[in-house]
Amino acid sequence: MIPGPFELVRATSVDEAVAALVEHGDDAKILAGGHSLLPLMKLRLAMPGVLVDIGGIPGMSYVRVEGDEVAIGAGTRHHELEKDAVAAAEVPILPCTAGQVGDPQVRHRGTIGGTVAHGDPASDLPTALLALGGDVVVQGPDGRRTVPLTEFFLGFFETALAEDEVIVEIRVPRTGSAGWAYEKFTRRANDWPIVAVAAVGHRTGGVGGPYGVALANMAGSVVRATATEEALARGASIAEAAALADEGTNPSADMHADQEYRRHLARLLTRRALERAAAA
Amino acid sequence: MQVSMTVNGRQRSDDVEPRLLLAHYLRDVVGLKATNIGCDTTSCGACTVIVDGLSVKSCTLLAAQAEGARVTTLEGLAGPDGELHPMQRAFREEHGLQCGFCTPGMVLAAIGVLADNPDPSDREVREGLEGNLCRCTGYHNIVRAVQSAARSGPAAGQVPQGPEAAR
Ligand SMILES: Cc1cc2nc3c(=O)[nH]c(=O)nc-3n(C[C@H](O)[C@H](O)[C@H](O)COP(=O)(O)OP(=O)(O)OC[C@H]3O[C@@H](n4cnc5c(N)ncnc54)[C@H](O)[C@@H]3O)c2cc1C
Ligand code: FES
Ligand code: FES
């Protein structure tokens, strides 16, 4: 399979990438690792006339501590995050989750900016990021703006990113030694989650309640398990709170699982995740 | 558009369409046919090559994305006098292949596994090769081959760099 024809623009700076997006409008798409976009283009499910390759922009891959936050460059590949010592010490859920994306070859190419921009409801890193809370930093023709992760994932492959914006950075709170867990349920080794749950303890109670909890593949986008978070904030037990994990969700049914089974998995994996996080 | 990269130690520059995939570039433009295309959907790993030291699925990379990179295919592994790379030798000695279709990708992915972890357990080898499918399902011998290669020394996790690498 071969993608449809397109023009390739090799951006050497984010400014250049934004300018190319402005120039070509909705005919243009950013190309990062290409591990979501190229498969779609090979199937002709996406046929952009212009690809703006940001893979050659220097300085887009980094993980660093800035005050109470960890800043992660949008170009950071899953495998770089998986091996990163700063991330392991400051936000350990992220390297652990990055190491569960696809297989090694996929992790060698895919980027955190790409998986966040793509907005797949079954994606791993966005689930962990949503549980952490924090911000997506995007750059457009009018400069930079910051979108809270809780307002970023809007629906099925739909995000708050405008057509002429580039994700430059993800910022998450440092969780340090607070408990966390990522529970991913798959049928085959290197697969996407059928359901996954991320739970992170917040040192300062940051987003309301002792744990941030997020779910993959339980709705049109990755979502917070709000009822569970609120129950925990009220002092409910883990079992009570986990039993509410699927409240307000709308999971899809496919060959892997029907809706009821997904709901069951969400409750079960939430309990496991919270128990592991609490024991840490 | 013009793309330049080093393939098995040789510098190349070719005029290609932007949409040309690295797998097709290597097979049809460079003429190196060891890189197989199995699924064409990023699943099977038959098309695995090494780009700047890391295993990647060349059916899911534009040739243009390898601009300036060092690319190694199976043809780049053996020494100038045909001496097999330790990983190739281990696959032969441990019967790590049957029909051989998955083998070029398996061998290159396996070198990547050892580059990451020079002494992997059985489970670590299996996880490291989870992006590679063998339809002959000879996984036991493949795992045995990777562990045998690991015992042979650090060269089993390294890709040859020199321009002498055979084409
Ligand atoms: C075989 C296979 C298995 C996989 N398994 C999993 C899995 O188990 N779990 C999982 O979560 N993911 C999985 N993935 C997806 C993988 O994580 C992708 O790498 C990721 O979704 C996209 O990242 P990318 O850098 O490759 O983005 P690309 O494919 O380059 O881009 C994806 C989309 O995001 C846009 N984009 C990219 N970067 C930016 C940016 N900085 N600013 C604005 N827009 C941008 C592009 O325009 C495009 O629309 C798998 C992929 C494959 C091929
Ligand atoms: S042909 Fe590339 S992964 Fe199967
Ligand atoms: S040896 Fe036949 S596919 Fe692996």
Keywords:
heterodimer; A: about 280 residues; alpha+beta; Uridine Diphospho-n-acetylenolpyruvylglucosamine Reductase, domain 2; Uridine Diphospho-n-acetylenolpyruvylglucosamine Reductase, domain 3; Enolase-like, domain 1; five-stranded antiparallel sheet; four-stranded antiparallel sheet; 11 helices; 14 strands; B: about 170 residues; Ubiquitin-like (UB roll); DNA polymerase, domain 1; 2 domains; five-stranded mixed sheet; 5 helices; binds flavin-adenine dinucleotide; binds FE2/S2 (inorganic) cluster
Walkthrough of the structure:
The complex is a heterodimer of chains A (280) and B (167). Chain A has 11 helices and 14 strands. With 280 residues, chain A is α+β, with helices and mostly antiparallel strands. Chain A has 3 domains: 7-53, Uridine Diphospho-n-acetylenolpyruvylglucosamine Reductase, domain 2 (2-Layer Sandwich); 63-173, Uridine Diphospho-n-acetylenolpyruvylglucosamine Reductase, domain 3 (2-Layer Sandwich), CATH 3.30.465; 180-279, Enolase-like, domain 1 (2-Layer Sandwich), CATH 3.30.390.50. The longest helix of chain A is centred in the last third of the chain and has 21 residues, at 259-279. Chain B has 2 domains: 2-76, Beta-grasp domain (Ubiquitin-like (UB roll)); 86-157, [2Fe-2S]-binding domain (DNA polymerase, domain 1), CATH 1.10.150.120. A 5-stranded mixed beta sheet of chain B has the order 2-1-5-3-4, with helices on both faces. The longest helix of chain B is centred in the middle third of the chain and has 14 residues, at 103-116. The radius of gyration of chain B is 15 Å and the shape is globular. The two termini of chain B are 24 Å apart. Chain A binds chain B through residues 1-8, 10, 31, 34-35, 38-39, 41-42, 51, 53, 55-56, 79, 102-106, 108-109, 189-190, and chain B through 1, 17-19, 21, 24, 40-42, 45, 48, 54-57, 60-62, 64-65, 67, 109, 112-113, 116, 126-128, 130-132. Bound molecules: flavin-adenine dinucleotide and FE2/S2 (inorganic) cluster (2 copies).
